[in-house]
């Protein structure tokens, strides 16, 4: 058999030789190229091999040799590290799927992915290769690479077996395989096995550093603290600035802490923190405790902030300790936030209970109940921990808190749910009812305010002060509703039960005077104003000078000119802001005393001192009258003409027109007189002055014997409305008005409509339309009311014109018809005769201008409104807030801040609360972070019933902390706001969530 094989072999060789001989010279070159290329490949000259074998393929027709050449070309692309090696290798497999080189090719593809650290693809291709068919050297590479890739993919058991196989059988990979096997043992918690190996490897130059590192970690994890400390110091001495140094410092800090060596623990933890921006929470909790034990509360706070969270028990404990450390540095606001956070989670119920207890007690102690939790947190504690050892203390605290809370409605709800409230609670209830009434009064809810004050008074004498104050403020409320008799009764009751030293005693006298004044009970008003003037100690107050002006008015009404003049002098002396009215009235009094030259001189002085006075047109008119009384008609005519030219819409313009006509007539200028009278009729049709002008015209035309011209003019007026007034018209209207005054609204509306049907152009048509509108307005039928009020305005002669204009402005503003609202208020400003009407018009114009962002106009109108003498505090706050916003928009920040600071003084008002927020926001925008922070913290302590602006302010506080680089505080306040805010405004929710998303990145 062997012979046969041998012969066969010789025969084949002979055949090959024969065949080769037959090829000829042209076939010799490809074979030589193939052999050269293969030799280069085996010599690792992969570039030369690729080039030579490529040339071979171009010339060769030997398919078997080409297959081998393609393999070597593909393999060379791997060995040369070409970027497209994987593509070339995979193309080879696609072309020769059955090639006996398949195992090598799959190994090369897996190794290429291994080099790219694409572990999953590397493992896939390694699995496609049968390691048994690889060369011995490649088998070692295959096993190590597969083991390492498995380790990276988390397949630690597979990797461990492969590394162990290499450690036993491979010289090349002994050390790395041993190291990684120890590493896997370490990860699996087999510390004894791992440490034994690392002890051997610590003498290896390549693995010494990592071995010492794992030895330190292993000893620490085995709780061999002394050995771990020694190993750690050894590591740091050998590798002082290594990337693992921070972890070694952490281990040392932790080990020293567990040994009770607080100072060494702090020292090493500080080194850890110096190079680690995201330290472990457990270590920071320990560092925080260590700092606390040494009395370093500020650093304790910084450490605990890293650990505090609401996601686990450790974080809850850190929040609890954080709150305690905040208390140590008197940072009550942040202590509240920390205790609140710790109480909101239940990982450790005992911590939750103590945290909630601390939170509740601190709320009462500091009055920092941001969203009025002062009551609800106590209730929450009693509900969650009914058997707590703190229950009695919390119950006592609840009673005390009800006395001090600013969330009066919540407090009242709590009391009303009590079955048997004691005297202290009823006393508290009386106080709360009064406070609720005061808040309703501030908010303009007068009917609700009266109900609250009634309830407080009806409880009797549990809290006498609250009862007495309820009388005063109920009187104030009745006054605002024009119910003067009821207001008088309450003011008198208040004055009878209070002492002169009580806060509102002098205010009650002043307000009582005004109530009598409005009722035209001038004798009573005089007594009240004089009592007020003698009682008031602060003579710089506007009310003091205003009272003297009213005293002067009453003396003037009673024609006691000397006393009137003295009163006006008192007003002028004590407050310059009241002087223009007082000086005008003094001049007027001189005229009444027939001292016309003195009157003229006084008016001239007054007009020079106050060129922008609201009484300037009145002063000119009074001067013209004084000149006429001195028979200086020709001197009066230019003044009257100026009034008509410069102040055509003044309330004295019609009188000036009539007087001008009379003066021209007296000066023997009948044509000029006719022109003046006609102007009055044409411009002020249906006014009383127009009637006088018509009558005067009749006399002039009769004097100049031109009755025809008079008749033509009179007929052009239409319907003879002005010339004749029906007595039946008057009686019909007065009957309808009488029904209205009795409070029979529906009957009054019917009567007014019947009057208008009978006298659509009657002289009282404007008033009838007004009452119809007022009845509809009270029924919230605003469309009917609006139409009726507009009819009143168009009539031109209604005594209720200004009331109609005010209500039209209010309705149009509520409907968003800003321009129509503005026009109504502007017209009211033009026609207003009283200071109250002017203030109402100015406030309306201010609101519209603010909504239209007309900043210059807002500033102008607000300034004019604030210059008025008797303006309510809430109107002053509103005007200052609007003006501050306009100043901010126009870049006048200092002026804005001044207004905001004044408006922010009363946080019970919505304007005050918003002003607080805007102040903080302005400080933040200008980079005054400390001021912004203190502004919000001050608001939190002061409190406000307007939760929306409190929430906005806390968001500003969070932004402030973020701007200061304190992300923890920024996040903490947002999380507390999210947990405690009960409002549902979309903008607040969005701002909180957006900011938390950014902070959590």
Automatic annotation (TrEMBL):
Lineage, broadest ranks: Bacteria, Pseudomonadati, Bacteroidota, Bacteroidia, Bacteroidales
Protein name (database record): TolA-binding protein
One matching Pfam family: TPR_8
Organism per entry: Dysgonomonas alginatilytica
Keyword Hydrolase: no
Signal peptide: none
Keywords carried by this UniProt record: TPR repeat
Keyword NADP listed: no
InterPro entries: TPR-like_helical_dom_sf, TPR_rpt
Membrane-spanning segments: none
TPR repeat intervals: 246-279, 281-314, 506-539, 545-578, 654-687
